[in-house]
Amino acid sequence: MHARFLQPDIFKVTCGAGAVTNTFTLVLTVASQETDGFRRFLRSAKHFNYTIKVLGGGETWEGGDYMSPPGGGQKVRLLKSALEDIQEENKVILFVDSYDVIFSSGPKELLKKFQQAKHRVVFSAETLIWPDRHLEDKHPHVREGKRFLGAGGFIGYAPNLKKMVSDWSGADSDSDQLYFTKIYINPEKRKSINITLDSKCRLFQNLHGALDEVVLKFEDGRVRARNVLYDTLPVIIHGNGPTKLQINYLGNYIPNLWTFETGCTICNENLRPLSGLQVGLTEYPGVVIGIFIQQPTPFVTVFFERLLNLKYPKNRIQLFIYNQVKYYESHHEPHVRTFLEYHESEYQGVKLIGPEEDIDPVTSRNIGFEMCRDNIDCEYFFSIDVDVVLKNEDTLRILIELNKPFIAPMMTKPGRLWTNFWGALSADGYYARSEDYVDIVQGHRVGLWNVPYVSHIFLIKADALRTDLKDPDLFESATLDPDMAFCSKVRNKGVFMFVTNMHTYGRVLSTENYQTNHLHNDLWQMFENPVEWEERYIHENYSKVLKDAFIETPCPDVYWFPVFTDVACKHLIEEMEHFGQWSGGGNDNRIQGGYENVPTIDIHMNQIGYEKEWHKFLLDYVAPVTEQMYPGYYTRAQFDLAFVVRYKPDEQPALRPHHDASTFTINIALNQVGIDYQGGGCRFLRYNCSIKAPRRGWALMHPGRLTHYHEGLPTVEGVRYIVVSFVDP
């Protein structure tokens, strides 16, 4: 279970007690549940060998929280009871909150600074007075520093603390802050108990009202917080009030969770190894993968291919697929249907919500969560939006092994600083850039990062969904978008949202300008999603053309190299046939003047609105080859004509000898000789050189005018398609 109740009252953690330099020091704290914040507190205590005793285990918390009216009286009651069992006169007690507190240094430094204060009780100090501003004038003035008491942390000798709480008789919901404040502003009680404030934050740093004062200090393989206003190094950092995001940020580093010398020191702690488990059995954790299609999105077919390739046993996966593309109801149905037709039986189960069910996106998220909550076999819910490019086939395994209640893989957009997480929030709850954001995105800092917002993809433990996150309105808000509302509620429930950049996981597509008026709309994604376009449509060996001279010369000054994938060839053919307006092979009103010397049965790129994309293709993938193979010639990749030609025995089987109206010509075979058609090819008459077995996706590049007089050889069976471009006419 994610947040379990602590055992009643005697829950005690001794963190390396043998190394404590003063055996008369005890840390008391109050915690009713074992949350992520509490585990962070204990880890920092263990790092410095503090001895911790936890009060309130097993009790229901009635003391309020920072978002509600004053509370905390329950802590005073528990402290009073605990102090009754302590008889040592010289026992030093540190009493602190736990869920939002981190130790930045050890007990030796704490005791030294406490003794230097020369008082029997030292309270943390705050810039802001709370909860009763009318008491401001009654607070003693200090020569320098903060003058208002903070009840979230104080240290003192046991007898003095006993005396301080001896009069407590309030309710658990009463204010501990107000109780201690009234003692402090009473001169007689203040003197009798011998209380002072840590005005310059030498022991305690309260973050509320002091965010501009606190920075991270990296030095000699160690990291801690520094107060730049007073030039002090606080021992204890408290994210009091509305500063939970800031304590989370500092907690990514303090104490020594990440340093420049060591990198991440906790990334291999408390793992859940999956190696060695038998794939065919039920040893792997059960996972529900939620797939959400909420808008027209490019490369959905590729998304399902990557999903299929995840290295995780499919018999331990249930799929929840939500396809509700409003106003484009049928756009992605063929993609989903084809995937399920071939692969549904491989998975443990599949639940599909289609457009016809008219379920809104927020409800779909809740239905997905319920599918996991209600299945006793489900241990994780893996949420993926369909615009995620999941490149790393081990992503699901990696996230499970990291063993966090909530964790997301960092996703990027090529050439941009955009990611699927925010490092900080603005005052109104929107995006703000944290100091370490760029370093994390660019991989200069690698590790696990507690962040305030993630989107698009995350893994969440089913235990968290059944306990802390069991509410049915997690995505609902009157002011925030559903994703922001969800993250806000996860944070407010005390669940840490981690993002990891320890591996490269993938990217997120741009969907803003995705058009759906073509058969294969992904062909038009060269500008919005160039990396995905290249992976889908450019031949896997194209990179070798320039790097390894992976190029052939079948005829003089004719160069042959791979450029298109089979998918690119298939999509271009289908796009043209879908458009269907093939020329008649005679006079052509598409050309200026209407006359074509050697006409073909073809469709021009500009007829389907592909001229801008084709020009970019020529610039990015043809021009570099041209400039390497024809030294001294530099092309701007201008073209008047670019078209797909169709050869059929009963339509136009061949093309008579001719020169091209170009400086050079590109001719790419779109289908396969011997399979799709028989015959065909190209013959250069001057050299009596023929290429009779053109390879699908390979480009022939040759001079157009003067030297390379050529003809199209007859296609005797089937249908042959080529794409031709006259470059630099």
From TrEMBL:
Q: What is its EC number?
A: 1.14.11.4
Per its UniProt record, the required cofactor names are: Fe(2+); L-ascorbate
A single Gene Ontology CC annotation of this entry is:
rough endoplasmic reticulum membrane
Listed A to Z, the keywords are: Dioxygenase, Endoplasmic reticulum, Glycoprotein, Iron, Membrane, Metal-binding, Oxidoreductase, Signal, Vitamin C
Q: SUPFAM superfamilies, alphabetically? A: Nucleotide-diphospho-sugar transferases
One GO molecular function term of this record is: iron ion binding
Catalytic activity annotation: L-lysyl-[collagen] + 2-oxoglutarate + O2 = (5R)-5-hydroxy-L-lysyl-[collagen] + succinate + CO2
Which domain of life does this protein belong to?
Answer: Eukaryota
Compartments in which it is found: Rough endoplasmic reticulum membrane
Kindly report, in one word, the top-level EC class recorded for this enzyme.
oxidoreductase
| Domain called Fe2OG dioxygenase: residue spans | 638-729
Membrane topology term: Peripheral membrane protein
UniProt protein name: Procollagen-lysine,2-oxoglutarate 5-dioxygenase 1
Source species of the chain: Cyprinus carpio
